[in-house]
Write a structure and sequence with these properties.
The protein has a 9-stranded mixed beta sheet. It has helices spanning 52-61, 77-83, 93-100, 113-125, 140-153, 167-177, 220-224, 251-260, 262-268, 359-367, 383-393, 401-420, 437-440; strands at residues 43-47, 65-70, 88-90, 106-109, 129-132, 157-159, 184-191, 275-279, 294-299, 308-313, 333-339, 342-346, 355-357, 424-427, 432-434. The longest helix is centred in the last third of the chain and has 20 residues, at 401-420. The chain has 457 residues and is an alpha/beta fold.
């Protein structure tokens, strides 16, 4: 089969302008018809394939055709050209879509946070299914817009919070729904970022780094994307250390929150927070995330269940263990759901090994098969294969935008609290922030010319 022959009737690129979407209700996702049989191959394009983007590409390409690849740093192309010799390479995704749009079924996005929206929006406007790394986008308006567009275009979407597809996440939800820990009113989460960890070093900056020579093969203007500031190239930003800078990343919470908060958020069905507060260990910083912030989310009561407080601790701040919690709490990260009858704990950014506490209760549970909870939630073969299979079968992916969009909105609200150093009220229906005008101004900051929605559709 020629990899450039489309598998199904493809939508042509439409020149449309986009208006801000402010409807207070998000419709449930309407799924597309299957585009291929289970054994057929998708035509995949990927934008941003360094580091995590490259790992996502490798996982999703198995058994499929990679027809186009885009990265603004052509120094990364070498090994990819060897692995995907039939793919056409680009530094500008807009040109890629213009030339290859009718040959693409699905698009992956592995760029820095601030360019997620532009790539995904353009692909989705063209009717392409999308996989986007976490956090889904860089602003609240972008999150809401992609949720609505997925419904409008009937697309299969997925965010790359790998732990959501795990066995551990399903066990936690099943344990909670079976009543093993009773009702939950408090959740504790933590991470070592931004004090340490991949992409962070704890060195808080108050100015952008001095200019360095742009490497040959690097399109720095493309990397800056929608950023309207004249930020010079620096190895302190590219390729791996952009996350602490607010113009490009979402700090430690944006990096890890979609993993660590996700499990409790899903298990408890939390939805949108109504209030976000922040305790600052260091002063708020308009360009770079500080260390040690503590964010408290207040989620309202829902469906007869009580209100829930979710607390997020960033390195080096660490929570104290709740009463009865006798497992060791690793500094790297973890989460605890505090129930009326004990709780659930896992000691990692993702829920790979959840367990009950106190430890004696966990030991009893494991040693007594009769007390173990039936598996009621469908299992999936990983975040990447789940997306690919869902496209082929016309089913809903496990972290599609109808779920990961609201989760990302909650994460972004916490990042805004840290960025401004102030708490805020959130009206999800009207998309309005109260009590924090600085954060409200960042719901939908204008991108520079060429990167606005009307320029991308």
């Amino acid at each position: 089969m020629n990899p450039l022959i489309p598998l199904h009737s493809r939508r042509r690129f439409l020149k449309q302008s986009a208006a801000a979407l402010t409807a207070p209700w998000i419709a449930p996702q309407i799924l597309a018809k299957p585009v291929a049989g289970a054994n057929d191959k998708l035509n995949i394009a990927w934008v941003g394939f360094g580091n995590q983007g490259g790992r996502d590409l490798n996982a999703c390409s198995k058994g499929n055709h990679v027809v186009a690849l885009c990265d603004c740093d052509s120094r990364l192309w070498g090994s990819r050209k060897e692995r995907f010799p039939e793919a056409k390479f680009y530094t500008d995704f807009r040109k890629m879509f213009e030339e290859m749009g009718d040959k693409i079924d699905a698009v992956g996005v592995g760029t820095p946070d601030h360019t997620h929206f532009a790539v995904a929006y353009m692909a989705m406007k063209m009717g392409k299914h999308v996989f986007v790394q976490k956090p889904l986008v860089h602003t609240l308006w972008q999150a809401r817009t992609l949720q609505k567009l997925a419904v409008e275009k009937k697309l299969v979407t997925q965010m790359g919070n790998q732990g959501h597809a795990s066995e551990g996440a399903r066990l936690v939800k099943e344990w909670y729904e079976a009543g093993l820990i009773g009702e939950v009113r408090e959740v504790i989460t933590w991470t070592d970022r931004p004090k340490s960890g991949w992409g962070f070093n704890g060195q808080v900056k108050t100015a952008f780094p001095p200019a360095e020579e742009v490497p040959e093969g690097m399109d720095w203007d493309m990397w800056l994307g929608p950023c309207g500031k004249d930020v010079p190239f620096s190895k302190a930003l590219h390729p791996t250390t952009w996350r602490p800078w607010w113009d490009f990343g979402c700090g430690g919470l944006g990096d890890i929150g979609c993993h660590t908060i996700d499990t409790a958020y899903w298990a408890l069905g939390l939805g949108a927070p109504e209030r976000v507060d922040v305790e600052m260990a260091e002063p708020a910083n308009p360009i770079h995330t500080p260390n040690g912030s503590i964010v408290s989310y207040r989620f309202p009561a829902r469906d007869g269940k009580p209100a829930v407080t979710v607390k997020w601790y960033e390195g080096p701040s660490m929570p104290k263990p709740p009463e009865g919690m006798d497992w060791e709490m690793p500094a790297g990260g973890g989460f605890i759901m505090i129930g009326e009858k004990g709780g659930i704990f896992h000691g990692d950014m993702r829920p790979d090994s959840p367990r009950l506490y106190p430890q004696a209760r966990w030991n009893e549970y494991r040693e007594n098969p009769g007390k173990q909870v039936p598996k009621t939630i469908p299992r999936v073969p990983g975040i990447h294969r789940d997306w690919v299979d869902s496209i082929k079968n016309g089913t809903k992916a496990c972290s599609d935008f109808s779920y990961s969009g609201p989760l990302s909105e909650a994460i972004l609200l916490g990042a805004l609290a840290i960025r401004t150093g102030k708490g805020l009220d959130w009206d999800a229906g009207e998309m309005k922030i109260g009590g924090n005008p600085e954060a409200a101004a960042l719901i939908n900051p204008e991108a520079r010319k060429g990167w606005r929605p009307g320029d991308l559709a």
